[in-house]
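Q: Hi! First time doing this. I have a protein sequence and I read that you can turn it into a structure. Is that right? Here it is:
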Amino acid sequence: MLVFKIVLIGIAGAILVMITKQFKPEYSIPVLLGICLFLIGYLTTGLEEVLKFVHSLQKEIPINNMYIKILFKLLAIAYICQIASNICEDLGYRSISFQIETIGKVSILLLSIPIIQSLLETVEYLLVSS
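A: Yes, that's right. Below is the predicted 3D structure, encoded as structure tokens:
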């Protein structure tokens, strides 16, 4: 039901932005940003369940805390860059949107280097031991 509520709020927000843009174009950008922030805030209320799942998973499987933190940072970068890129594209700034996406992808690559190194070390260990 959470997804249904978010979709309805998003559609209502898009209609509100369109109406605002017709009558008071200078207010359409703040309304758009406000709706985006509201939706992000509404979505973060469900993160508690995800965190509980991760903690229960950590108790069952020994996973280094550093990897979990990196994964959450990667997800945050991906979502933030995607939302910012979409907003810039909606406002007609496609080149800025492309730069945000590129910077996000490079940031994700740089942040994932420790996970890639660990994966390669594990593969090497498995190949040598067999």
